[in-house]
Design brief:
The protein is an alpha/beta fold. Helix content is 18%, strand content 33%. It has 3 domains: 90 residues, Beta-grasp domain (Ubiquitin-like (UB roll)), CATH 3.10.20.30; 94 residues, Elongation Factor Tu (Ef-tu), domain 3 (Beta Barrel); 122 residues, Rossmann fold (3-Layer(aba) Sandwich), CATH 3.40.50.80. It is globular, with a radius of gyration of 21 Å.
Length: 335
C-alpha cells in the first residue's frame, strides 16, 4: 500500500507523490520527477533535511551532524532516510523551480454555475483528470478564464468527489471571470486549472480551532470542514463568518449540515451593514469570546480581505492573547 506525500515548497507550490513503505521519500520523489535537494543517500550530509508537518514515518540511520536529536524531536527529517507509514505533509526548504518541478495543469469542464446571491457565484467543474487532483484543504488554484489566456486565483470550496470540485467566486462588476460566469458560461465549457498553490491549509488538529471567514473567504473553510467531517476531531471547532450585507450571507445551510455531522463544531454569522436585519450586526472581532481563545491554546485560521486580517491582528494584541498558531490568507477581489 502506498501513501500520499504532499511536498509544500517555499514558493507556495504543492506537489503530491505516492511512496511505498519500503522506499525512502527521496527515492519516491525522484522516481516521480520531484528532485529534492540531495548530496548523499546515507544520512550524512543533511542536504535533504525537510520538516514533516504531519503524518507517521520512520527514519533510517543518520549521523548527528546531519540531523540532531532535537531537530528530529521537532519534526525535521532526512528524506533520504524517511519512510512513510501514513499520508504525510512535508515542507521543503527550497522553491519548486529549484526542485525541477512546477504546478500541475488539469483540463476540466464546467458542471454548474449558480448565482448564490448578487455578490457570490458557485462554480462546479468536473473532468477525468480531476480524479488525480490532490490538494490540501484550504489551498487554491489558478483557473483560466475561458476564451482568454488570463487566470484568476480561487480557493477550493470542496474536496474532489467523483471527479468534481467546487469554488465560491466573488461577483465583481466588470471582473473578467465574473463577467464570463454571469454572462456566457455554459455547462460543458472547457476550463483549465493550475495548482495547487498556497500555504494556507488545514494542519493536523492538535488543539481547539477558531476559524474566521470574511465573504467568499468562507470557501477554504467549507473544504476544511469536509475533511474534518471525514476524519473527525476530538477538539472544539468554532467558525465565525462575517459579510458586509445580508445578501452576501451564503452557504449557511451547508454550515448547518456540518454542525449536524461534526459533534463539536459550532458557527456564528454576522453582518457589518448598519441597515442589516440580521440579529448579529458588526464585525467578526465583536463575536470572538474569551472562551473561544482558550487562553492562547488555540489555532486560528483566518481568510478574508486585508482590512479584516489587520483588524483581527489588532484585536488579538488588545486581548493580550497569542494563539499557538495563527494562519491567515489575505485576498482581494479579482477583476
Amino acid at each position: 500500500m502506498s501513501h500520499h506525500i504532499a511536498f509544500q515548497f517555499e514558493d507556495g507550490v504543492t506537489r503530491f507523490i505516492d511512496a511505498s513503505p519500503t522506499e525512502t521519500v527521496a527515492d519516491a520523489a525522484y522516481r516521480q520527477g520531484v528532485n529534492i535537494p540531495l548530496d548523499c543517500r546515507d544520512g550524512a550530509c543533511g542536504t535533504c533535511k525537510c520538516f514533516a508537518e504531519s503524518g507517521q514515518y520512520t527514519q533510517g540511520e543518520y549521523i548527528d551532524e546531519a540531523l540532531t536529536q532535537e531537530e528530529a524531536a521537532q519534526g525535521y527529517v532526512l528524506t533520504c532516510q524517511m519512510r512513510a507509514s501514513s499520508d504525510c505533509v512535508v515542507r521543503v526548504p527550497a522553491s519548486s523551480a529549484a526542485c525541477r518541478t512546477q504546478p500541475a495543469h488539469y483540463d476540466a469542464r464546467i458542471r454548474e454555475v449558480r448565482a448564490l446571491s448578487p455578490s457570490t457565484i458557485a462554480l462546479s467543474i468536473e473532468g477525468d483528470s480531476l480524479k488525480k487532483l490532490g490538494f490540501l484543504p484550504g489551498q487554491y488554484v489558478n483557473l483560466q478564464v475561458p476564451g482568454t489566456e488570463q487566470a484568476r486565483a480561487y480557493s477550493f470550496s470542496s474536496l474532489v468527489q467523483d471527479g468534481a470540485v467546487s469554488f465560491l467566486i466573488r461577483n465583481v462588476p466588470g471582473g473578467l471571470m465574473s463577467s464570463y460566469l454571469s454572462g456566457s458560461a455554459q455547462p460543458g465549457d472547457a476550463i483549465g486549472l493550475t495548482g495547487p498553490l498556497g500555504s494556507f491549509y488545514l494542519r493536523d488538529i492538535q488543539r481547539p480551532l477558531l476559524l474566521l471567514a470574511g465573504g467568499t473567504g468562507l470557501a477554504p473553510f467549507t473544504a476544511m470542514l469536509e475533511k474534518i467531517a471525514e476524519q473527525g476531531s476530538p477538539h472544539p471547532l468554532h467558525l465565525i463568518y462575517g459579510v458586509t450585507h445580508d445578501a452576501d450571507l451564503v452557504e449557511v445551510d451547508k454550515l448547518q449540515a456540518f454542525a449536524a455531522r461534526i459533534p463539536n463544531f459550532s458557527f456564528a454569522t454576522c453582518v457589518a451593514s448598519a441597515e442589516s436585519a440580521h440579529p448579529h450586526k458588526g464585525y467578526v472581532t465583536q463575536y470572538i469570546t474569551p472562551e473561544q481563545l482558550h487562553d492562547g491554546n488555540v489555532d486560528v485560521y483566518l481568510c478574508g480581505p486585508p482590512p479584516m486580517v489587520d483588524a483581527v491582528n489588532q484585536f488579538m494584541r488588545e486581548q493580550g492573547v497569542k494563539p499557538a498558531n495563527f494562519y491567515y490568507e489575505k485576498f482581494s477581489a479579482s477583476v
